[in-house]
Design a protein that fits this description.
Blueprint (H helix, E strand, L loop, with lengths): L1 E4 L2 E6 L2 E6 L9 H16 L4 E6 L22 H9 L5 E5 L2 E3 L1 H6 L4 E4 L4 E3 L13 H9 L1 H10 L3 E2 H7 L4 E2 L5 H14 L12 H4 L6 H9 L1 H4 L4 H14 L3 H16 L2 H15 L18 E4 L3 H11 L5 E4 L3 H17 L5 H8 L2 E4 L10 E4 L5 H14 L5 E4 L6 H5 L8 E6 L8 E5 L6 H13 L3 E5 L7 H16 L5 H11 L5 H8 L15 H7 L12 E3 L5 E3 L1 H13 L9 H21 L6 H11 L9 H7 L2 H16 L7 H9 L9
Parallel strand pairs: 3-4, 4-5, 5-7, 6-8, 7-10, 11-12, 11-14, 12-13, 14-15, 15-16, 17-18
Antiparallel strand pairs: 1-2, 2-3, 8-9, 16-17, 19-20
Length: 692
């Protein structure tokens, strides 16, 4: 055995040279991995072996680039040096793939002459998720292997393709039995030699590109079909342009130049910076300084859910999906039956749903109308009406019923978790688990740490969140926690803007163009304007009151802030416009023209200011946690990085402070800057540096 460097070895089995990478945790393409590969291939090509196998130790093949090196000075052998060495090898090169071959990892494998993989392996070019494109020839080689249409889908989705599918696409040449990858790869390499198989250079194979030449409609139709999904993002379009270049360029090198130009444009842009920032932010949210990774956790074998409505049903599905039995309790049998029926319908409507899978999951659900059915649950989550008196009553009852050590969780979106915990004799077991609706779909879970919540309860909640596919963020106890507390700032300003002369569709358009899925007024119409509205108490004091009194309650009644046609397509409403103008006249003001810039700054800057207050009070651990909440729970566009990242992007604390003071002077103390914002601006700091 020859040790090439600290992460690479070169060994021999018969006529086959074996280059082995071992750079935990995922064999990322750091400079020492590239150096090891370059020198390993150089030596293997020079020796008397007849074929070369590239394989990796650990749980995966090369899982991609080392993102921590992005933007830094390059050192060591370049990835292109490694690829050229592999592809121009006079001996057959076989890449042996297990785990994942992603991004730069797949780009390396595409420079081997052949690829052997175990069935559990997955292959893909997911750079689009980081606001990038494959920058080492992947955009030029992949369509030459799998065809233009498949390459478009794979690269713009970033999908990890299972090895059996990759074999059908031609991306994998042979599937090896699980656990026998090395033996299968060596056998394949020996066959290459014995059968004098050609040294396949993907870069020279244009057959599948030629089928697409002269057919620009392939790209036009793909863009049209995915316009909604790609809206606002730069990277999908750049990926498409690279594949167009592969099809239309006279040579492979010409296509590579187009790839490089587009890659550098994305790399230097704010979108990729935001998406790379978010990649680390999401992972960082798991880390809680005083609750280390080795904190013991409580075993969760059965979960109880109180309430079978929309939230309770959705929450239950999360646990059933991973095989944890759930007991749902409702006050009345008909409400329970209705809730279970909705859950079943959700499973039956799922894409690719199989009847046996639906039955398996439904069999894990037990319903009841007596709270004592929750006595053997390890975790109980209440999803009852959002009223403190009801919550306290429920927790007082649970305190008597739940077994010792059971975690008692509230799904409250706003209320004081400490006050709820005080209704029990075990506040250390009480925590907030704020799921977002629909709870079986939305990724965010705000984990609310009470003053007396035990550390093992926090650790259990954070790890369990990951198991059920949620992105968990820890918050302290304050009204609205992180997300809704900041949302209230935006909602207040949106309502005020409308009473100053902007129309709801103006506000919605600005926020939609910013990247949100929809604006606040369209969202209200979708949810229903009558949520929380009581007819008997309504006195026409707000625009919403008047709309509801006219039975304009949103999409469900065909009218709300907007008018809707039979397909629920919205259009600006003259009725709403008249109601708004009447309110403005009554207030004694004159409507004014409000610029898009003011709408955006009025809606967003107070949110950033509130985020600073949340950090100032220690209600969030770090500014990136605030951003993680907003990206996963409220539709903040990931390519803008979250409110705190965006604050730095548009000029930092000095710019935000300047605007807040300007608005405060004109419109009052709703815009009063946080003390920490003033300090941050004075010190020349960044929002991204803030810790709670």
């Amino acid at each position: 055995m020859t040790e090439i460097n600290s992460v690479t070895t070169l060994t021999r089995e018969g006529d086959v040279a074996i280059i082995t990478l071992n750079s935990p945790p995922v064999n990322a393409l750091s400079f020492n991995v590239r150096d090891g590969l370059y020198e390993g291939f150089k030596q293997a090509i020079a020796d008397d072996s007849k074929a070369i196998v590239l394989i990796c130790d650990g749980r995966t093949f090369i899982a991609g680039a080392d993102i921590t090196e992005f933007g830094g000075a390059s050192k060591g052998a370049s990835l292109f040096d490694v690829q050229n060495m592999m592809e121009s090898s006079p001996k057959p090169v076989v890449a042996a793939i297990h785990g994942t071959a992603l991004g730069g990892g797949l780009e390396v494998a595409l420079c081997a002459h052949y690829r052997v993989a175990v069935p559990s392996a997955r292959l893909g070019l997911p750079e689009v998720a980081l606001g990038l494109l494959p920058g080492a020839g992947g955009t030029q080689r992949l369509p030459r292997v799998v065809g233009v249409e498949n390459a478009l889908e794979m690269m713009t989705s970033g999908r990890h393709v299972p090895a059996p599918e990759a074999a059908k696409l031609g991306l994998v040449d042979e599937l090896a039995p699980e656990g026998q990858l090395k033996e299968a790869a060596i056998a394949f390499a020996n066959r290459c030699v014995a059968e004098n198989k050609p040294l396949v250079k993907i870069s020279e194979n244009n057959t599948k590109l030629e089928a697409a030449r002269g057919h620009p409609e392939i790209f036009a139709e793909f863009r049209k079909k995915n316009a909604r999904k790609f809206r606002g993002f730069d990277a999908p379009e750049a990926n498409i342009k690279c594949i167009e270049a592969a099809v239309n360029s006279a040579t492979f090198d010409e296509g590579l130049k187009a790839e490089r130009t587009l890659f550098m444009g994305l790399m230097s842009g704010s979108q990729s910076a935001a998406q790379r920032y978010y990649f680390f932010a999401e992972r960082q949210a798991q880390k809680i300084p005083d609750v280390p990774d080795d904190t013991p956790v409580r075993e969760i074998r059965r979960v109880g859910v109180l309430g079978a409505g929309t939230m309770g049903g959705g929450i239950s599905m999360n646990f059933v999906n991973i095989g944890i039995p759930v007991t749902i309790v409702e006050l009345k049998q008909e409400a329970l039956d209705r809730g279970l029926k909705v859950i079943r319908a959700n499973y039956e409507r799922s894409r690719g749903a199989k009847p046996e899978e639906t039955e398996k999951r439904m069999s894990l659900l037990t319903g009841g109308t007596d709270m004592s059915a929750l006595a053997d649950c390890d975790l109980i989550i209440e999803a009852v009406f959002e009223r403190m008196d009801i919550k306290k009553d429920v927790f007082a009852q649970l305190d008597k019923i739940a077994k010792p050590g059971a975690i008692l969780a509230s799904n409250t979106s706003y209320l004081n978790v400490d006050e709820i915990a005080a209704a029990t004799s075990r506040p250390q077991d009480v925590i907030g688990l704020h799921f977002f609706s629909p709870a079986n779909v939305m990724k965010l879970l705000e984990v609310i740490r009470g003053e007396k919540t035990a550390k093992d309860v926090i650790a259990t909640s954070m790890k369990l969140a990951k198991k059920i596919g949620k992105v968990a963020v820890l918050s302290g106890v304050c009204p609205g926690f992180i997300g809704n507390r900041m949302l209230s700032q935006r909602q207040r300003e949106a309502q005020k803007l409308v009473l100053e002369g902007a129309m709801p569709w103006d506000v919605d358009r600005v926020l939609y163009d910013f990247g949100f899925p929809m604006g606040p007024f369209a969202m209200s119409d979708l949810a229903g304007l009558d949520i929380g509205w009581v007819k008997e108490n309504s006195k026409g004091e707000t625009i919403r009151d008047v709309l509801c009194e006219m039975d304009r309650r949103g999409q469900k009644t065909g009218a709300g802030y907007y008018d809707y046609d039979e397909n629920r397509v919205a259009k600006p409403s003259p009725v709403t416009e008249k109601i708004i103008n009447d309110f403005i006249v009554k207030s004694g003001r004159n409507p004014r023209k409000i610029s898009d810039e003011e709408i955006l700054e009025r809606c967003v800057f107070p949110m950033i200011n509130e985020g600073v207050k949340i950090l100032e009070e220690g209600m969030a651990i770090r500014s990136s946690d605030v951003d993680t909440v907003w990206i996963n729970g409220y539709g903040w566009p990931v390519y803008r990085g979250g409110p705190m990242f965006y604050g730095d992007l548009v000029g930092g604390p000095k710019k935000v402070l300047e605007k807040m003071k300007e608005f405060q002077g004109k419109m009052g103390d709703d815009f009063k800057p946080a003390a920490l914002l003033e300090k941050l601006a004075a010190d020349g700091g960044k929002f991204g540096d803030l810790k709670g």
